[in-house]
């Protein structure tokens, strides 16, 4: 099964820029389906980026994040060829993990 995470990480000198797109419904629990029933909340609770085993970005999310969230940030201390690990867990126990090499 393909990962729900697409990521691009590029290093320019001491700065590494990361862009990630995550496929997830991010349902708030406040929207009704066509039958008038509430769609249960389903959202990412924690998003984590690790570089060489060290956390470089951790987000604790709630229902206020839009569907298929896009994340962009930069950090120092990595170099080309280093491995970036990206993972998320949601409120229903779902999770996904992928890795990417920094270009």
From TrEMBL:
Pfam families (alphabetical): SoxZ
Span of domain Sulphur oxidation protein SoxZ: 6-100
Top-level taxonomic group: Bacteria
Name of the protein this chain belongs to: Sulfur-oxidizing protein SoxZ
Taxonomic source organism: Bradyrhizobium daqingense
Classification of source organism: Bacteria, Pseudomonadati, Pseudomonadota, Alphaproteobacteria, Hyphomicrobiales
